[in-house]
Amino acid sequence: MSGIRLDQITGSNFSYQHLPFDRFLDDMVELGRGRVELWGIAPQLHIPQLTDGEARGIRRRIAERGLAVHCLTPEQVIYPVNVASPVPWLRESSIATFRRAAELCVELEAPLLFLTPGRGFEDEPTDAAWRRSVDAIGEIAEHAARLGVDCVLEPLQRVESNLVNDSAALARMLDDIAAPNLGAALDTVAMATAGETVDGYFAALGGRIRHVHLIDGRPNGHLAWGDGELPLGEYLEALGRHGYDGCLTFELFGDGCYAFDPRDALERCFAAVERELAASAA
Question: Does the pTM exceed 0.90?
Answer without folding.
Answer: yes
